[in-house]
């Protein structure tokens, strides 16, 4: 399991890796989802403003 985790991290930092590109995109999407979740915790009005900014 440790070797797999290490290989994933190496791919994530390799600019020439297709897997790395997919992992970085997944990281970006996770970050955006976290921001949406944080905004939802702050109320619907705030959430809609953040969602429009992130999606639009």
Overview in brief:
This protein has helices at residues 2-12, 18-41, 44-55. By secondary structure, it is mainly α. The longest helix is centred in the middle third of the chain and has 24 residues, at 18-41.
Which characteristics define this entry?
single chain, 56 residues, 3 helices, elongated
Please report the number of helical segments. Answer: 3
User: How does the helix and strand content classify structurally?
Assistant: mainly alpha
Average of per-residue pLDDT values? 84
What is the helix/strand order?
HHH
Termini Cα gap = 39 Å
The parts where pLDDT drops under 50 for at least 5 residues are: none
Number of beta strands: 0
**Molecular shape:** elongated
Alpha carbon gyration radius? 15 Å
Provide an overview of this structure:
- With 56 residues, the chain is mainly alpha-helical.
- The protein is 84% helix and 0% strand.
- Helix 2 runs antiparallel to helix 3.
- The radius of gyration is 15 Å and the shape is elongated.
- The model has no long low-confidence stretch (mean pLDDT 84).
């Amino acid at each position: 399991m440790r070797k797999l985790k290490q290989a994933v991290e190496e791919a994530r930092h390799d600019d020439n890796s297709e897997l790395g590109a997919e992992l970085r995109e997944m990281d970006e999407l996770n970050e955006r989802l976290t921001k949406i979740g944080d905004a939802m915790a702050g109320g619907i009005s705030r959430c809609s403003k953040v969602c429009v900014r992130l999606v639009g």
